[in-house]
Amino acid sequence: MIRVVLADDEQLTRQAVASLLGLEPDLEVVADVDDGSKALLAIAEHKPDVVVLDLEMPTMDGLRVLELTDVKAIMLTRHARPGVLRQALSLGAKGFLAKTAPAALLADVIRRVHAGMRYVDPEFAAEALAENPCPLTDRELEVLRMVDDSRTAPDIARALNLSAGTVRNYVSSAMAKLGARTRAQAARMARDNGWI
């Protein structure tokens, strides 16, 4: 039996997937949980062969779970951005699959991952290969990397040994290049594309 932990914050989706996987003769869902923190606890308790993680969950997302564990993992998502795909694979994900995939495919991917192989949804892979190059300079990326809700331009300036005006100029330039309305949106776009 291949022992599986399933983590997805959407209860209906999680329960349906758990039920469908339970019909497979060689798969056993040993735990299904609704957030990343609970996924870590379930992984520690059940020692699964494979964990199936929703990319976006409250408390702790699937990428953070990947950072904190070394279990074979398959990421499920509705919308895969190329940078997120690259980040998940770099963190050790062995599979990357759309939530719209048939249950039989998920079962097959679990078997493949358990056997030491990888699987990436072909559509997600094609999008990653067709991705546009980063339009931002190294300095713009460095500044955006520091952007979050708690840091002001003077805070970022002090950390990078720049003036607050220079930080604002880099942020404005990055926002214009990305078509972002706010600095937070620009930083999120850069993260989603895997540039920072």
TrEMBL record:
Chain positions with 4-aspartylphosphate modification: 54
Pfam families: GerE, Response_reg
Keyword Lyase applies: no
Gene3D superfamilies reported in the protein's UniProt record: 3.40.50.2300
UniProt entry tagged with the keyword Lipid biosynthesis: no
Keyword vocabulary terms for this entry: DNA-binding, Phosphoprotein
Location of the Response regulatory domain: 3-114
Biological processes, Gene Ontology terms: phosphorelay signal transduction system; regulation of DNA-templated transcription
Domain of life, source organism: Bacteria
InterPro entries in UniProt: CheY-like_superfamily, Sig_transdc_resp-reg_C-effctor, Sig_transdc_resp-reg_receiver, Tscrpt_reg_LuxR_C, WalR-like
Gene Ontology terms, MF aspect: DNA binding
Domain HTH luxR-type: 129-194
Classification via PANTHER family: TRANSCRIPTIONAL REGULATORY PROTEIN DESR, TWO-COMPONENT RESPONSE REGULATOR
Protein name: DNA-binding response regulator
